[in-house]
Write a structure and sequence with these properties.
Chain lengths: 174, 382
């Protein structure tokens, strides 16, 4: 009888420890998911801001009309897309057109600087987002996390893959 | 924006990280932000007004040397109080893998945290340990900055993920003006060098060989050498009759360093490689020196492909001697190079660098996002 009580106590203590550890891991995951959400919102905001700045640049006087039209199209395209992979391609295309436009003669200095700054923010926001995604995916890969489904119903976050190199004169992407 | 900067190392002892944080704080304040720096500090009277002391630091062996750090319950309480009083929009911790205030701040704080990593040591044992044990704290960091490509590599290898690169700035105004050292540069011309004398990658032997070729034809020419190392050994490389024209200052303090940059006609950076950024070069540029540097990628970039300073073939004393002779004989060219250097170095000024840091802040705090101030733990969160 005494043996049984000892065994039961040990099992109970073990369960308590395990549940404490599991809830700590769960709260860590919870925080990571919030971080991914915040980073995704920041990336969205940066992309929207870049699109707006690119449209502004396309509308500014001084730019060659053909280049302006190309930039306007490239800036408007991602806004209509909901599919993630297609969005990535459209954003990459905008990066390329933006680089070509910024390098072209006649680009007005003010709007060009705005667009370059916005492009640099996209570069930064995507680094921080992918960093959060990498950390979260690593934390979710643990055996305990998977066995106890500590991540709950939160979807596994996905990297945002795109060509985000800003135009040459801008920012820290050297 | 209200920014709280956290420094892990004691403010009483000068160091690269402390210097970085002080310069960043001043540049941010100049840009109109409110800044408070939390650091271990005993001599509060000598500290700048934006500094908040977290008490005294204890010497702790860290990363192969002895660092003066602060850790423990009392330090944690100070961090908590500082965060509560500061009501910061954002915390910016430095070197959070060091067991000190930055790490405590990561543990204690709830809210946006940005971190800058300075360590560039591929075998950083401290970071390897912290990678496993302290992951919880470091996971809260939402934006990571590395000051060099090497620091970024170290970070990625030990912690995974990624970081953006924002190099150290140079406080241009601190180097811009200075009185030359007495008797310099002199009528016969002077060439300057700054760096460790016995570190082969700094390239002093190349410069000494070039000096040995130049000096016999130029009776007044002198070489000013500043930096730690055995000066007699360095002098031994040139013929005996030229040795008294190689003047060694030894290790110099900050003020004499600035004066040394202003004491020469041509400042030479003969590095043979390994220089990731070239802080000496940007300092010399801030002082408006006419620069002659070896053609390594980092220097070529900083000197705008030779527009802000002449480049010579790496490790080639003959080429160095020819280029130096041309410059010594052409004051107009030196004046042009000086002006070009002062203009080019603005890209590396702290003010520019701080603008890039602010851009990181703005990226993680999008306008209109409903984030309150940083709090010290969930219980106090609203």
């Amino acid at each position: 009888m005494a043996d049984l009580i000892a065994v039961l106590t040990a099992v109970l203590a073990l369960l308590l420890l395990l549940s404490g550890y599991a809830s700590w891991r769960a709260s860590r995951l919870d925080r990571l998911h919030l971080r991914v959400e915040g980073a995704a919102a920041a990336l969205d905001a940066a992309l929207a801001r870049r699109a707006a700045a690119a449209l502004e640049l396309a509308a500014a006087p001084g730019l060659d009309p053909e280049a302006a039209a190309r930039l306007g199209d490239a800036a408007a395209a991602p806004l209509r897309i909901t599919d993630r992979r297609e969005r990535e391609l459209a954003e990459s295309a905008l990066s390329r057109v933006l680089r070509a436009t910024a390098a072209a003669p006649g680009a007005p200095a003010g709007p060009r600087a705005e667009a370059e700054a916005a492009a640099t923010r996209v570069y930064l926001a995507r680094r921080f987002y992918n960093d959060a995604v990498a950390t979260t995916r690593e934390a979710r890969a643990g055996r305990l996390v998977r066995a106890l489904r500590l991540a709950g119903r939160a979807p596994l976050p996905d990297f945002f893959e795109m060509d985000d190199r800003p135009p040459e004169s801008a920012g820290p992407a050297r | 924006m209200r920014v709280g900067l956290v420094c892990p190392y004691t403010w009483d002892v000068p160091g690269g990280v402390q210097q970085h944080i002080g310069d960043l704080a001043e540049a941010l304040i100049a840009l109109g932000h409110e800044v408070s720096v939390l650091a271990p500090c005993e001599d509060a009277a000598a500290a700048p007004p934006y500094l908040v002391s977290a008490g005294r630091a204890l010497p702790v062996p860290y990363n192969g040397s002895v660092a003066r750090l602060t850790f423990g319950f009392r330090a944690a309480a100070r961090v908590r109080a500082w965060i509560r009083d500061g009501r910061f929009d954002l915390l910016h911790v430095h070197e959070p893998a060091a067991p000190s205030l930055s790490l405590l701040a990561c543990w204690v704080a709830e809210g946006p945290i940005v971190a800058t990593f300075h360590t560039a040591n591929p075998r950083s044992r401290a970071m390897a340990v912290s990678a496993a044990a302290l992951r919880t704290a470091l996971e809260k960091i939402i934006a990571r900055i590395a000051v060099s490509e090497a620091a970024r590599t170290t970070l990625v290898e030990h912690l995974g993920g990624d970081a953006v690169l924002i190099p150290n700035g140079v406080a241009v105004h601190r180097y811009a003006e200075a009185e030359p050292l007495p008797g310099w540069p002199g009528d016969g011309g002077a060439i300057g060098f700054l760096g460790r004398l016995d570190e082969p990658r700094k390239g002093l032997p190349v410069l000494l060989d070039a000096f040995a070729r130049l000096a016999p034809e130029r009776p007044g020419l002198r070489l000013l050498v500043a930096g730690p190392g055995d000066a007699d050994e360095a002098r031994g490389r040139v013929p005996a009759d030229l040795r008294d024209r190689v003047v060694a200052l030894g290790r110099v303090d900050e003020a004499d360093k600035v004066r040394a940059y202003h004491s020469v006609d041509v400042f030479c950076a003969p590095n043979t490689g390994g220089e990731s950024f070239g802080i000496v070069l940007t300092e010399a540029m801030s002082a408006g020196a006419a620069i002659l540097a070896s053609d390594i990628p980092a220097f070529r970039r900083v000197l705008a492909d030779g527009a802000a300073g002449e480049l010579f073939a790496v490790g080639d004393p003959g080429d160095l001697a020819r280029a130096a002779a041309r410059l010594l004989d052409d004051p107009a060219r030196r004046a042009d190079l000086s002006a070009a250097a002062r203009a080019a170095v603005r890209a590396y000024d702290w003010r520019t660098v701080a603008t890039e840091v602010v851009r990181v802040y703005e990226t993680v705090l999008p306008a209109g996002a409903a984030t309150g101030p940083v709090t010290a733990g969930r219980r106090e969160g609203v």
